[in-house]
Amino acid sequence: MPIRVIDHNAPLEANLSAYSLPKIVWSKLKHPDGYELNVLERLPPNFTKGKKYPVLFDIYGGPGSQRTEKTFRRTVDFSTYLGSDPELEYIVVTVDNRGTGYKGRKFRTMVVGQLGKLEAEDQVWAAKEYGKRDYVDAGKISIWGGSYGGYLTGKVLELDSGAFSLGIMTALSSDWRFYDSIYTERYMKSLTANRAGYNASAIAKTSGFKNVAGGFLIQHGTADNNVHFQNPAVLVDTLVSEGVSPEKMRVQWFTDSDHNFNHNGASTFLYKQLAKELYDEKRRTPEGKHQWSRRKV
User: Fold this and answer.
1) C-beta separation of 26 from 250 below 8 A
2) Is the CB of residue 154 less than 8 Å from the CB of residue 205?
3) Residue 292 has pLDDT above 90, yes or no
4) Secondary structure of 91-143 in HEC code, one letter for each residue
5) Mean pLDDT for all residues in the chain
6) For 11-294, CATH number?
7) What predicted TM-score, i.e. pTM, was given to this entire model?
8) What residues act catalytically?
9) Which GO terms describe its biological process (predicted)?
10) Which residues contact 259 (CB under 8 A, 6 or more apart)?
11) Which of 67, 73, 153, 284 is most enclosed, with most CB atoms within 10 A?
């Protein structure tokens, strides 16, 4: 059969040519255990060899998902802005960890019964690999995700690896006992059959939240009908009760907003807040602490 051009997209290409967009690079990371992780990397338009750039891991990582595919929607989004803005100039990286789709059944089903474990380990390993690159500021590698990506960001911080300097969790699950059973039991089985797995998969260890250099931000809508507000509320209560410093923890509730943050301009505020966090992190320097935060109370 002859190849026919259905649409050459010339008008779209002409419009895009007026903008300074990141350079998109697809690659693979070969893990020492033998499997490969697909990577989508967005380099700033004026990327300069020899310069150190901050990095953002923009993640999702949920079972059967894929965020590194070669499609247009993966190349023009909020991460495009983060790489293009001359005051930010982030290298934005997406890594599809174990458990994601389109790499075979074995790769996809490794996470069954233990959500949050292998996925977090892969993101940490990938961040450490990126930190070795001569164009990366290894002390300024941030991580952000929404929904399952928010949960995974929390599990990454929980590992207390030192690989990431800032974490942003948007609309996150914190405990699979709080999520709908048709999704949860597909991957975790029932609570009766896998109580230890549920306990391990919950975000509960706080040392990583205490130690992350640039702190972390939690964003959630109080009317989220997908990931109920109970999830971040319980997590924040745990973090406060375990003594996580207010210098580390920032929390933003969006009154009456659902999972899509569509109420009263919440979405615009949310993305501006994300940009501010990354702007502040890029410029963060070690500072002394106020005396009250040095006291054991």
Assistant:
1) no
2) no
3) no
4) EEEEEECCCCCCCCHHHHHCCCCCCCHHHHHHHHHHHHHHHCCCCEEEEEEEE
5) 95
6) 3.40.50.1820
7) 0.94
8) 147, 224, 259
9) proteolysis
10) 147, 171, 221, 224, 225, 226, 227
11) 153
